[in-house]
Design goal:
The structure is a single chain. With about 220 residues, this protein is mainly beta. It has a single domain (about 25-210), classed as Alpha-ketoglutarate-dependent dioxygenase AlkB-like (Jelly Rolls, Sandwich), CATH 2.60.120.590. The protein is built from two helices and 13 strands. The strands form three sheets. A seven-stranded antiparallel β-sheet has the order 1-2-11-8-13-6-3, covered by helices on one side. A hairpin with a 2-residue loop joins strand 1 (about 10-15) and strand 2 (about 20-25). The N and C termini lie far apart (about 50 Å). The chain binds N-[(3-hydroxypyridin-2-yl)carbonyl]glycine and fe (iii) ion (FE). N-[(3-hydroxypyridin-2-yl)carbonyl]glycine binds next to strand 8, strand 11, strand 12 and strand 13.
Length: about 220
Amino acid sequence: MDLFDDLPALPETVALAPGAVLLRAYACEQAATLLQATEAVLAQVPLRHMQTPGGHTMSVATASCGALGWVSDAQGYRYAAHDPQSGRPWPAMPACLVELAQRAAAEAGYADFQPEACLINQYVPGAKLSLHQDRDEKDLGAPIVSLSLGLPAIFLFGGSKRSQRPQRYRLAHGDVVVWGGPARLAFHGVAPLEEGDHALLGRRRINLTFRRVRNPAPGRPKPD
Ligand code: MD6
Ligand code: FE
């Protein structure tokens, strides 16, 4: 039982580290619309538990939308234009999700964010994400934008070395994390999800991460 969940969430900006901010409650007003768009994607591309290169099955269930999707198997982690399960392109990224990601990036100081991939991760109680760096993208100059929906989770946020003890932040429905610049390669993860029942999502948390993969955006000059 979480006493905070009965209170309306107030927007607030929390600095996690240079380059990384938590925009609390940033997407609360549009959350139902964003969830509906996400569910429409998931009706076309089912969530699945991918294998890690080390041979483990991820407790988080994953799907993607956009020009590129994130995939993991025995060969490694990578981005692919086609869903390996169906051989078909990933569904397009819904406009409301692109707009939310662009607006949040700009709010955090990253203008002109043009995501190519949106990774959709679903957590049920007990699911977790081990400490990792997001480094499969060529464009490390672009930030990552992360939107949390549903049950709250404890986000672990460390430094650029795995050995640095991570800070813990509670990510709730409608929270957005924007992450780039000097924080782009920070180690991070998600603690095992606690049991709960969310008004819109039930026993689930969905996290969407928006990523720019290639460098630079086609048709735009490279910054020097
Ligand atoms: C999650 N997020 O919140 C997992 N990665 O469920 C991530 O792995 C993540 O939130 C890069 C930047 C922001 C994130
Ligand atoms: Fe990550």
